Amino acid sequence: MTIDIMMPFYGDPQLFRAAVQSVRDQTHQDWRLVVIDDVYPDTEPGRWVQSLGDSRIVYVRNETNLGVSGNFSKSVELVQSDHFVLMGCDDLLEPDYLAVMTSAIERHPGASYFQPGVVVISDDGTPSLPLADRVKTWYRPDATTEFVLTGERMAVSLLRGNWAYFPSICWNTESVRAHGFDPAFDVVLDLKLQLDITLDDGSIVALPDRVFRYRRHAGSVSSWTAQDGTRFDEERAFFLAVSRRLAARGWRTASRAAAAHWSSRLNAATKIPGALAKRDGTGLRALLRHVFTGWR
To answer: How many domains does the chain have?
Structure first.
C-alpha cells in the first residue's frame, strides 16, 4: 500500500532536511514524497532534495507564492494514492508512522482520516507541552485506546476543543477531494475540513500510537496571528457560521458547542496579559471582542 506524503515547503532549510529524512527512514518503504516549494527565496533546499536521487521523491516549485490554503489545495491535486499525509516541513515522522497507518487502514478501510498519537516538540526538537497542547490532551476523548467517531458525537468532540494535529493526519484522498480547503481561512481551515467530512457522514479513527513529532514554535501561522487578534476574528466568524449550519442539520448539541467555542475563547483570554503588557490597544480590543461576544 502506497501512501503519499505531501510536504509544502517554506521555512527553515535545516528542519526541512530533517523532515525529509524522517520520511526516508520509514520501516514501511512503500511511499511517495512530494515537496511543493512555495517559492522559498533560497533555492538550495530544492537542489538538495533533488540531489538525493530517490525516485520516490518528487520536487515541485510553484511559479508564484500560493500561501497556506493555496499550497494545501495544490498538494491535494498532486496526490496519486488512496491515502496521503499533508506533513509540515518542520515536523518529523517516527520510523513506524507509515507501518502504523497502513495497519489502521486495513482495519478501517472506509474511514475518512486517521489521527495518531503525537509528541509535541520545541524548536530544538526536545519534547514540550505548552498550554495549547495541554488543552488538546484534555479534549481528546481517550489517548490510550483506538476509537472511531462519527456523526454529531464527532462534531461535538472537535468543536469543544480541536484535539487533532492536522500535519499528523493520514487522510482518505477521496474524502478530502470531496470538500477541499476553503481559501477564506488560514487558521481554521483544518477544522473546517474535518467538520465538512463529519457532516458528509465521515469518520475519524484515533490511534494511541505516538508516531508523529509535531513542532510547536512561535513562527507558525496560528502563533503570530494570535498576537494581533486576527486569528480570533476568523475563528469567531467560523464558529458562528458552523453553529447555524449544525442547527439546520438538527445537531443541537453540536450547534451549541460551536456557538460557545469555549476553548477558542479561553485561548484568546490567555493572550490578554501580553496585549496589556505591550499596550497593544488594537490587539486587546480584538481579544476582548472574541472572549465576550457571540454568546447564545
So the answer is: 2
Cα(294)–Cα(265) distance, integer angstroms = 10
In this structure, the answer to whether residues 174 and 230 fall within a common structural domain is no
Residues 189-203: tens digit of each pLDDT: 999 999 999 999 999
Query: Are 138 and 161 spatial neighbours (Cβ–Cβ below 8 Å)?
Result: yes
Same structural domain, 83 and 199:
yes
**Residues 9-13, mean pLDDT to the nearest whole number:** 95
Write the Ramachandran bin of 67: left for phi over 0, alpha for psi from -120 to 50, otherwise beta: left
138 and 112 share one domain: yes
Evaluate if residue 294 carries a pLDDT over 70: no
> What is the domain extent for residue 95?
3-217
Whether residue 77 is found in the same domain as residue 170: yes
List the grid coordinates of 66. 500560493
C-alpha angle 243-245-247 in degrees, rounded to nearest 5: 70
Which residue has 477564506 as its cell numbers? Answer: 184
- Same domain flag for 84 and 43: yes
- Is there a single domain that holds both residue 229 and residue 102? no
Contacts (Cβ under 8 Å, ≥6 apart) of 93: 5, 22, 23, 25, 26, 87, 211, 212, 213
Considering the domain architecture, whether residues 110 and 50 belong to the same structural domain is answered as yes
Residues 126 and 269 in one domain: no
| pTM of the predicted protein model | 0.91
C-alpha to C-alpha distances, 216 to 14, 233, 248, nearest whole angstrom: 16, 22, 36
Q: Tell which of 217, 240, 265 closes a domain.
A: 217
Split at pLDDT 50, 70, 90, the class of 187 is confident
C-beta pairs of 70-76 under 8 Å, 24+ apart in sequence: 70/183, 71/8, 71/10, 71/36, 71/38, 72/8, 72/181, 72/189, 73/180, 73/181, 73/183, 74/36, 75/6, 75/8, 75/34, 75/36, 76/6, 76/173, 76/176, 76/177, 76/180, 76/181
